[in-house]
Structure formats: C-alpha cells, structure tokens
Design goal:
The structure is a homodimer of 291-residue chains. The first copy, chain A, is of the alpha/beta class and 291 residues long. Helix content of chain A is 53%, strand content 13%. Chain A folds into two domains: 2-174, NAD(P)-binding Rossmann-like Domain (Rossmann fold, 3-Layer(aba) Sandwich), CATH 3.40.50; 178-288, Orthogonal Bundle (6-phosphogluconate dehydrogenase C-terminal fold). Chain A is elongated. Chain A starts with a strand and ends with a helix.
Amino acid sequence: MIQRLAVIGVGLIGGSFALALRRAKAVGSVVGSGRSAATLQEARRLGIIDEIAEGPAEAAAGADFIMIATPVGQIEAILRAVRPQLAGGAVVTDGGSTKSDLVRAARDALRDRIGQFVPGHPIAGAEKSGAGAALAGLYDGRRVVLTPLPENDPAAVARVELAWRTCGAVVARMTPQEHDRVLAAVSHLPHVLAYALVEQIVTDPRAEVLWAHAAGGFRDFTRIASSHPEMWRDICIANREALLQEIDRYAGQLRQLRDLIDAGDAAGLEHQFQRSREARDAWLQRLASGA
Amino acid sequence: MIQRLAVIGVGLIGGSFALALRRAKAVGSVVGSGRSAATLQEARRLGIIDEIAEGPAEAAAGADFIMIATPVGQIEAILRAVRPQLAGGAVVTDGGSTKSDLVRAARDALRDRIGQFVPGHPIAGAEKSGAGAALAGLYDGRRVVLTPLPENDPAAVARVELAWRTCGAVVARMTPQEHDRVLAAVSHLPHVLAYALVEQIVTDPRAEVLWAHAAGGFRDFTRIASSHPEMWRDICIANREALLQEIDRYAGQLRQLRDLIDAGDAAGLEHQFQRSREARDAWLQRLASGA
C-alpha cells in the first residue's frame, strides 16, 4: 500500500500508473507535477491525481513512492530537485526507456541516496501521449523491466515490483546494459527505421502521389513514427551506443537483402522471407497464448 | 455486366474480386483455376467460384473477362497458356504488384493480342492470403491503379475500369514505370525493411530474450513481414530497378539519422521526428476524410 504517490510527469505512462493503482485501491493520495499546467488540470479533472504540486521537489515532499514518468532527458534534473525532499523510507522509480545512461546520471544526482532509486521501464508505449490517453488497464499483462542497482535495499526493489504487479504487469529484472541492448533491438531501432521511411517520403519531390498510394501496410509500418518527437530524441541520445550498434547491424542486413535482389536470387529471397514469416508468426502465437 | 469471369489464382485478390462483382450482381458465372486443388475446392464451397477449370487455358475458354491474380512471376506463363483460347471481345487484366517488367513479358506472350490486356494493380494487400481470406468488401474505397497500354482499345480499358468501380474501388491511371516507382517507395521498400528487421532478430544470438520484450510497436512495424514469401520474392525481382533505387535512398536516410544520433544532435533529431510525425498525421487525416 502506497500512502502518498508522487507522479512527476502525468502523461500516458505516469497517468496510467496512478489510475492502475487507484483501480486496485493500492494508493492513498496522488500528487502530480509537470511542465504543463493544462495537462495537470486535465489530470485532476480526470481523477488521475488529487493535487497539483508546484514542481518535483514539492511533489516529492511527504511522498513514500515517487514515479518519474518524463522523457528520459529530464530525469536527472528532477532527481536533483527531489533529493533534498526525499523521506528516508521513500522509494523513487521511473518509466524511462533507457537505463545505462540514466543510472550514471542518477548516481551523480542522488549520491548517498542512490539506494532509494529503483530504475524501471514499462514496455507499454503507444504513439498517443498525454494525460488524456492514460488508462487504468494500460499495463495489464504488459512487461515491465526493472534494473535494480547494487546499492538498492532488496525491500525497495520489492516495493517497486509489487506496485507494478498491482498494476497488472509482468515484471522482469535485467542489468541496465542488458535492458538497453534488448530495447535498442526491439524498440529503438524500429522507431528510427520508421522515422527514416517517413522522412524519405517527405523529402521526395513526388511526395503527394506517394502519399496518395500509401495503404494499410505503410500505415502500420509507420505507426511508431507518430510517436512523441522529444521523447524519441532523448531515447536516441541516451541509448546512443546500443542503438548505433543495432543501426549498423541493420544496414548490413539491408545490404544483404539488397544484394539478393540485385542478383535476382529468387531462392535466397524466398528462403529469407519464409524464415522471417515463420519466426514472426511463432512469436505472435506465443504472445496470444500469454507464454 | 460480365457474362463469364475467369479467375486464375483464387486467393485473397482474385477471390475478393469475384465476391465483389457477385455482390453487385455484375457477373453471370465464375470459373476458377489455380495450382492448389484444395484452395479451388474451398473457393467453390465458399461460393467464390461456380466451376473449377483444369488450368488457365480451360478457364479462359469462353470467358469474356479474365482476371489473373497470381504472384507476378507466374503471369507470363499464364498469358501464354491463355492466348490461344482468348475470345475476340474478351479482356484480360491482372492484380500483379509490379507493372513494367510484366508489360514486357505480356507483349512477348500475347503478341498480336496484347491490346486485350489491361494491366492493373489493386492496392489492397494484406498479410493474409488464400481464398478463405477473400472478402466482398475488400476493395471498398481502396485504390486500384490501371496502367493502360498504347495498344489497348479504349473500350477494353473502360470495361476493366468499370469492373473495379463496381467492386467499390477508386481507379487511377499511370504509366507502368510511374506505377513501379510509386509502389517501390510506399509498399515494396517497407516490406523489405520489415523483413530485414525480423531477420536481424532471428539471427541474433539472444533472439529469445529479444522476442520476449518485443511489444505493440514491433508487432505493427513487422506486420508486413508476415506477407506471402513467394509473392514478395517475385515483386522484389520484378521491380528490382525501382526497388534498388529506393533501398539505396533509404540507406542514405538511415545514415543521416545515424549521424545525428552519433553526434548527439538533439535539435536535429527532434526537428526530423517532428516533421515526420506531422507529415504522417496529415496523411492519416486525409485518409480518414476520404480525400
């Protein structure tokens, strides 16, 4: 049970976290802070938060659980602001999409209080953002990765894990490096690829006729290019190292397919397409069966 | 009104064409042929076709409208088989995803009968395939591109156009080269990109943990990698020239984004992501308004 939850950044991720805990009656009161007064007022109107705090420090004062759910580029400054207000028994977690870079910044910002920070990442993004998109059921059956630190008290990790379980999520633990490598491959790289494709259409002299003939496949492929530009800017920079490796591997994959096409290698293309289809379909079946 | 429709290749595209014409009561009888006896029997059971023909030549005999809806790699051989059976007033069209290469092959195959062939392409693919996936409403509001030939009698083009309009489609006309260039950009390239991404996961030594953390964004991005491998093999080879140009342009786009990430250019990344999001969202709005 959380007595007083502080949500710093009341958008899709933070707002849904508060709503899910409220749904489970696992939280007393919720205080929110953020950069946009309009979003905070909307969040209060929607019953996501009870109170609006002046800023992160004011939100953290008196809270026993602090969720930082802003673009990753803002988290370090927020941790610095929060630190002087941090109660001894409070835990801090976050919803940032990258972890190695953040852990370095958090050690700097929190110093001797770093043990109270349990980094986390709910894998439940959507191209929608803002408090209005928040849902109590967003995390049902979704995966949350925690990347506990050697400095963490096991009880602090357990509290964060319990909160996510209460939200309906499935919790996995990894090192920050492992997390970043996995997410670069399955999330950050696809976003970059989708943005690059849309950019290619946008910069084409015949963009109008191209858009007119783009259909459902294109729409689904580029859905993630409607994601939050600032958030993805921060992710690309924070996870630069792992992401560049994945981009370079991908350039190699693409070159290999290009060479098969250039050579007119029908058997090679069909073999690869078949293998991809089978692997993807097997994954969808595992997803559907909840395995 | 079509008296006798021959559908050669009774899958998603050919089957839906027959069902849509039946829905409009615009066809007398439908005869089907194809490589799989099981598919043809299913198509008859589902009421998509009335009769099963031995092969393309038998299907074409006595038909006044012939739709060839097979992977593009098979169309030339089918046209050769159909030619001796072609009635003087019959029109032949196809649903192939590439056009320049096909037109060359069709001229070879049909010789003095080339004027009866009106090439077409319904932009209504789906990752599903087979007669069981066919729908009478598949083409409602969808775009069909016809690439008429100088040899075509305007009346033949008009008949094919009317048939597609009767199916609910919006018909555009282009040259075969223009068609291939447009489709390479908005359809063939995205397919290659999705296949390459799945291939990257499949060949990763840590594929299991990657699949376990892939989420909704990945699923949508890779949906088209569950497309029909043989069909996409044929498309890549048939539209090689335009597709290679798009792949090369894409490699350049990706390198440019890579350099922004490598340089930590936050403003540059945000600018590009913002522009992509706005362009895509504007397109979605035009789609929704039916413009």
